[in-house]
Specification:
The chain has 273 residues and is mainly alpha-helical. The protein has two domains: 190 residues, Cation efflux protein transmembrane domain (Alpha-lytic protease prodomain-like, Up-down Bundle), CATH 1.20.1510.10; 72 residues, Alpha-Beta Plaits (2-Layer Sandwich). Helices cover 70% and strands 11% of the residues. The protein contains eight helices and three strands, in the order αααααααββαβ. A three-stranded mixed sheet has the order 1-2-3. Strand 2, helix 8 and strand 3 form a beta-alpha-beta unit. Helix 5 packs antiparallel against helix 6. It is elongated.
Length: 273
Amino acid sequence: MAFCFALTLLMMVAEFVTGMWYGSLMLISDGVHMLSHAGALVLSWIALAIAGRTSGKGLSYGLYRVEILAALANATGLVAFSAWIIFQAVSRVLNPIAVSGAEVTGVAIAGLGINIVTILILHGAGAWDLNTRSALLHMIADLVSSLVIVVGGSIIWMTGWVVLDPLLSLAVAVVIAKWSFTLLRDSFMVLLESQPQHLSQEQIEGSLLQSFPQIKGLHDLHLWEITSHFICLSVHVVVEDTLLSDVQDLRRSISAFLLDRYGIGHCVIQLEC
């Protein structure tokens, strides 16, 4: 995260200065985009550091939820960035300004290289985590943006068609907005403690009843996520009236079954007769 932040910040300064100097909205937008990425990487970096710490008595689940808050902040920043670029692009279409295609293309190629490096680093670090995935999506969005700028800058350089600059900026902003709304939705769903998208209560109930003949019924099953891949479940399990020592192994078997088949790592199982 720290290395990616340093690379992103360096490229952000280069793009912003070049975009202002040569009048390219594509480079200015990508420079602001890079700034949002730098902020996203810092948020993700801090969130990972905090989430790994032990918490006080008031936070029984620890600080894992900080990762989701960071992902939410990153997604909100992407939405705001997209809105700003759309506004600027429409203004430039109505009032085109001169753009230097050669310089824009050169800087965009450098930005493209840095984006590829940061994406490879973040993907190797574990992109399955929602917080890291939010930072990775930032960088993928900027990779697409850099590719568009390289193509657009080359066309402007060869044809002088300056209106292509805001048009391509508008297209990139729409794509980024779509990705950011998806990330925003996923973050909200975790904060609302909805069940993970890949699991359902009916699916789990059916597999438990099928796999454990000792279970006579299930009720009050709840399924939620604390953070990415930290899935929790609570359920009341009805069994025949018997000694607690006789059904203790059943409770352990149910927990092991849920972890192995569904990745549910935190189970609260209440046995009833």
